[in-house]
Structure formats: structure tokens, C-alpha cells
Amino acid sequence: MKKTLLTPEKIVKKLKDVFKDKIKETRIETRKAGQKKKEYTNIWIKIHRDAFKKCVKYITDKIDYPHLAVVSGNDLGKNIELIYHFSVYYGHRLGEISINISVDLPKEDPRIESICDIIPGALITEREKQEMLGVIVEGIPDTRRFFIPDDFPEGIHPWRKDEKGPQKFVRDLYEGDKK
């Protein structure tokens, strides 16, 4: 495996050197947490959709011990934002670094390539984004529903803010928000 530990700044520089204008934005945040006030570093990268999968592949090939924790998703109005949350260098003396790669998908074309061929464990979190946000994950090896029951109407995506599904389902899904 790779032996050199990169600083957050060097990770960002390498990604910018490789992906150039495909990276829209980067930032590094450091915070202290827990009783021991251990320092944690988060790298945030916003990348164009067409470079996203290559960026994931680069991280898994070039940085020690990458781990995909989860993919989160946000309805931003005209776009859906997906954030792939990775951690690297777990267990190393200098500490774990979180790398968060975000990509905006226009709602009229919410497509993204699956990373299951790189990280098979991404399957469930990618399926969740398909069902809940209506993202089309191209190349996903299993498209069956996992979170939403089979009798739930097609085309209804519960996490979309603009959801206009049958009132029965919309009401039942958001009942807890009314309290």
C-alpha cells in the first residue's frame, strides 16, 4: 500500500493538479471535538459530474485506506446535490481526514455514474438516492427497491422538496413534521 501521508493541503493540491477546471470549489475545515478535543479535518470538494467517478478512482488508487461512509443528498431547488463522504488515514498517528466530494445534478437530468465497480459497498447508499431523490445511478448493479415498498407509486421521491405525489403518500411521509 501507499506509504506517504499527505496533508489536507497536499491532497487538495494533487486533486486540483489532476482535475484542474473540473473542480469548482475546495475548502479545508479543521475542528476539535470530543472530551479530548481531538482535531478533525474535513476537505470539501465540489466537482463537475463528468469528472466525479475519475476523482473517486483517483482517491481509492492514490490515498491510503479510503473508506466510503455514506452518500448524502440535498434538494437544492433546481439541482440535487450528492455528497460522497470518505475518510482516509484511519488509525494513523496524524489522524483521519474526511474527504467530502459533492456534485450537483440538474433535476431535469439527475444522472451520475455508479461507483459500485470501484467500491462495491456503495450499492445500498446509491440505491437510497435513486429511491428517495430520483437520482438516476447509471451502471448500478442492482436497481431493485430497498427503502420504499414495492407498492409505493413509481416516480414519487420522498426527499424531493417539490414532490407532488398523491396526497395520501405525501401526508403520511411528512406526518412527523406537523408536530
Summary keywords:
globular, alpha/beta, 7 strands, 179 residues, two-stranded parallel ribbon, 5-stranded mixed beta sheet, Beta Polymerase, domain 2, 25% helix
**Apparent shape:** globular
How many individual β-strands? 7
CATH superfamily membership, which one? Answer: NADH:ubiquinone oxidoreductase Nqo5 subunit
Task: Give a quick account of the main beta sheet: strands, pairing sense, barrel closure.
Answer: 5 strands, mixed
What spatial order of strands do you see in the largest sheet?
A: 1-2-5-4-3
Q: What structural category arises from helix and sheet content?
A: alpha/beta
Any low-confidence stretches, pLDDT <50, length ≥5? none
| CATH third-tier fold name | Beta Polymerase, domain 2
* Level-1 CATH class name: Alpha Beta
End-to-end Cα distance, whole Å, is: 52 Å
Describe this structure in words.
By secondary structure, this protein is an alpha/beta fold. It has one domain: 2-Layer Sandwich (Beta Polymerase, domain 2). The chain has 4 helices and 7 strands. The strands form 2 sheets. Strands 1-2-5-4-3 form a 5-stranded mixed beta sheet. The protein has a two-stranded parallel sheet with strand order 6-7. The protein is globular and about 50 Å long. The termini are far apart. The mean pLDDT is 89.
